[in-house]
Structures
1.
Amino acid sequence: MPELYPLYRPTQPRDAGRAAASYLEAPPSPPLSPYIVCFWGMEQRPGSGSGTGHRVVPDGCMDMLFEWLPDGRIVRSSLCGAFGTPFDALSSCRRVRYFGIRFFPGGLYRLLRIPAAEFTDRLLPLEDISGTASSELAERLSRCRSFEEQTAIAERHLLNMAGSLQPLDCDPSFGNALYELLRSGGSMPVSELSARGGISERQLHRLFVKWTGLGPKPFGRIVRFQTILASVSRGSDDSDWADTAAAFGYADQAHFIRDFKSLYGQPPTEAVRAMRGHVRNVQYDRGGNRIY
């Protein structure tokens, strides 16, 4: 399995919607870095006006989510599978605290043997998923006084679980194809991935669905989107989208804008302005539908 951390750093847009919520991230320790992108924490503070949703965009990852009220009462613990549309993660009007564990593509299956394909485009209660010991972890996280303490608790919990299970070795065909797809920024065609790996496109599709919950084509599309997102977030508000489209292998500017909008929820010009705090964020539901 390739070392993913240097190859792929999926990100969520730090746009204007996050003004209503504190947001923190921390990298995992070296033993967990093959499996985990980051630990993250957030506190929702409603009442700051409309357009304060926390935008979540496709990144090919899976997340364990823990939510509780300020007094420590647990709201829910969930597993969010890989998904293909943007949505607004803050639907409650209550003040809620969050802690999340974001797993690399294939990382959750390797570490805890939780099959990714069963959770694609789904948010399910963790207590319904065997092998997570979620109730114990949720209770311990709710008693922590800081994000740093939560991260340490989650690290120990996952290391103990991984030690008892022994993480799975990655299928070499999947690992090699994943490496090539990430190295190319998501641009390598499925036919070329298949030819390089010496397996059929059908076999490659089955492997990607098994390990990530997504086929290689939609997964590559998300990787390319994440690469573009990192690029445009560093650019200017008046970027030349025709040049961007050509640089990332799109047939034309219109194709690029349609693809970006379907994964971000807004055209790239509006997205760049939102990420710089020039405009309010727009809220979306899990189906990618604009709420207002």
2.
Amino acid sequence: MRYVVTHPRRVRGESVHQTSWEKKLLLSKEREEIQVKVQSQTAARDPETLRKEIEEAFLMPEVEHFVETPEVRETEARMKLWLDAGYPVHLIGPTGCGKTSLAMHVARQFGRPVVWINGDESITTADLIGGYSQIENESVRDKYIHNVFKSKDVMKVEWVDNPLSLACKYGYTLIYNEFSRTKPAANNVFLSVFEEGVLELPTKFGEDRYIRVHPEFRAILTSNSIEYAGIHRPQDALLDRMVGIYTDYYGYETELRIVMEHTGLEEDVARRVVEIVRYLRDRLPDAQKPGTRACIMIGKGLKMLNRSSGIGLDQICIDVIANKTSSKKEMEEKRELVCEAIAAVQEGSGG
């Protein structure tokens, strides 16, 4: 017998008197609507579309004003030799010597997409390989009140690849910048990638737990050679599986061309900047040595300089090298060193 409402009442626009089968019918309709909505959203996001979206999130920045000299080309040739031989290349050198720009330039020459990781203390294995992502729809009702119940539905669960798994799966070139700033435990996943050619996804279930590394996969890692704050020594087992190329500060002519290309300074002004920085570099401790980046910053500061501002070359140089200063006394020592450098360069150039 079907239940017939003889005294219909409505609360907040809904009927108070509903049978259990009517409640189930209403619930099933709601679920169908949600399912159709989710399917329509995911239909437009096919695997290829999702992959491209992830790639865009990790693609490296563009290289601008890259300067090639015989000195640079020699290092490039060594990098290509080892990468073509199937070995990852570990670029090691002091900060500001051009490691990152060189890595990006060489990676582009292989004609494959390039994905990018920036190492830091917070990087985990999941940041490298990916993890499960889920869309959750939760509706809460209390079943102890008429026409009310409680339910929780997880609508969709899917694995999302991160840079390392993307590069291994599709044969991309991976650039791992500031590799030594990541805690060693997070990088253990590279051991099997570099040795056995297999990437293990520890948190993934089923047969897709292992990825056979694509033959076009290449990896370039960069690290600082000096014990700056936040630097970790990578595990020896991992270092044994890659080739190390030490890159120091470029020679005078290469550094001059880089500064001119990046700043647009006239050659005589650019020479003055480079000579001042190289003078400071020879006299400051390793962790405080200014690199080519400092030359570019000083050059751009000079380009923006307004003579009426009262700011001189000495103050621009001091501002650029002040970041690695721990006390007022040390700052005064650097100020004296900058003035000494400027005077020495002026004297050497004939005033």
